[in-house]
From TrEMBL, chain A:
SUPFAM superfamilies documented for this protein: Sigma2 domain of RNA polymerase sigma factors (SSF88946), Sigma3 and sigma4 domains of RNA polymerase sigma factors (SSF88659)
NCBIfam families given in the database record: Sig70_bacteroi1 (TIGR02985), sigma70-ECF (TIGR02937)
Matching Gene3D superfamilies: 1.10.1740.10, Winged helix-like DNA-binding domain superfamily/Winged helix DNA-binding domain (1.10.10.10)
Sequence ranges assigned to domain RNA polymerase sigma factor 70 region 4 type in this UniProt record: 116-166
Lineage, broadest ranks: Bacteria, Pseudomonadati, Bacteroidota, Flavobacteriia, Flavobacteriales
Family: Belongs to the sigma-70 factor family. ECF subfamily.
Keywords: Sigma factor, Transcription, Transcription regulation
Protein name: RNA polymerase sigma-70 factor
TrEMBL record, chain B:
Domain FecR protein stretches: 180-279
Residues that span the membrane, as ranges: 84-103
Protein name, as recorded: FecR family protein
Domain Protein FecR C-terminal: 324-394
Protein's organism: Flavivirga amylovorans
Domain of life of the organism encoding this protein: Bacteria
Amino acid sequence: MDQNKTHELTMKEFENIFNRLYESLCLIANKYVNDLDLSEDIVQDVFIKAWENKVPFKNKNKIEGFFYTAVKNKSLDFLRSKYAKDVETYSSEGLETLQTERYFLRESVIIETSSLVERALELLPDKCAEAMRLSIESYTNKEIADEMDISVNTVKDHKKVAYKKLRKMSGYLGIT
Amino acid sequence: MDNSDKIKPLSEKIVTSLLKDETSIDLDTFNTLTEDDKKHILFSVTNKNKREERLQLKNKLNKQKAWKAIIDSEKQSNTKRKMIYWYSGIAASIILLLSITFFSNKNDELINTAIVAKNNIEIGTDKAILTLEDGSEVRLEKGQIYQANNITSNGEEIIYLLTEQADHTEAITNEIAYNTLTVPRGGQFQLKLSDGTKVWLNSESQLKYPVEFNGLEARKVELVYGEAYFDVSSSTLHNGMKFKVYNQSQEIEVLGTEFNIKAYKDETNIYTTLVEGKVVVNYQDKKQSLEPNQQLNLNIQNNNISIITKIDNTYKEVSWKKGEFNFKNKTLKGIMKTLSRWYDMEVIFENKDVEDKIFTISFQKSFSIEEILSSIKYANSINDYYINGKTLTIK
């Protein structure tokens, strides 16, 4: 890929990114400002600015990083603003922790990973999804079987179906 | 590789491993993270409670509305530019005032604009008066800590805790103790009731509430006057006990929800705005239920009601609790009425023509009254203003 060749998002691509990331970005903003309404405002603002400024992307893989970073920066801006200082007691962690890259990476990965998991589960038939959900919660096959009132073999079958489907869908999920 | 670039590959790696049911997940290549971080990530992703917490938060989001707001932003950018104009207006007019002062030192004849004789108009702060069941009063204000039996206050918020031995049989025999919280003009305060319900009280408001709910009948509080925002703790946590808010002319019945009531003594209407959940408003012998984003206006002079459905600016109606004023298409008279409560001032319109001018304006409650006025003046919306003591005269 030509280093200088940048990609400007089309409206359709922009909408897809919004649909994929909106909820996750609100959750990450909420990790900073601890106020869901405000988090929604912050994320909407980031999308509005990104669209107005026609932010170019050199690499599609950087899109997630761009939005997560923009939301983090805007949230921190809010926390450092005059008004927020008055209500500091409402955020769960001290500003010092919130400002670290470690906190940002850790919380973003939790939210992004969970969002990918949920999307994967949504693609599966109900029983399969239930078995996979329990499996992710570290239930053993035996425990899943007891919980769902089915045999261990059926649990294994559900999982096999799940792997097969997910492998086919991994492209759709954005998992490479 | 930038840290933010790692979010995607790292998340994908974890998801793939989780879905493949791999027993150990190799995250060694991601050395920005400590072992503790890695453990924390895996725990948070796979823990059932954490997952449910996230799903609950997500359910509260309004994705469609957000998308609409984003695509409408092109249209709204005109309004937005106006806002920037307001803000730059503030800056410009400060410079303007400064230059006037500068010249006035040399030439006294130039002082003929925005006369400020003695400005005693102050920005509002966190403060309230707590009246205990025995009638004694406690002054609460920013920076002052108050602590009594089950009550604590940090000067911004007052919190009621449940008594340890919540013996309900004892509660019925004892009379329920009521406290009253009065927020004066120029004040605001927050309250957390013993059932976990949060209340934001705006300037010039009074709320009467039991120190503890007895758990045997509906939870009842009274908004004696003024404006309050309620985030009611769900009935399911309180044996299905409903929560009721009374005021002079109506009663609001809720199960667990967020809403705003504006019932000022000097206004003819009571405005009930539902943000989330469901409420039923009882007035006279009628009942009216509200859906989110609906506002019920009860005119207490003729008992007429009107319901505004789908108000698109619910956020603006309740932004006062977040330290902002957001006025959308409001008259200058109405705006000044709200401001007079926060800045504890009297407003006189010498020029009646401007009273009904319509404004859309937003600013933080931490702005001084002069910052706001000079921006209005800068936009040529008023000719001039005059401040003396706590009185503002619009010319």
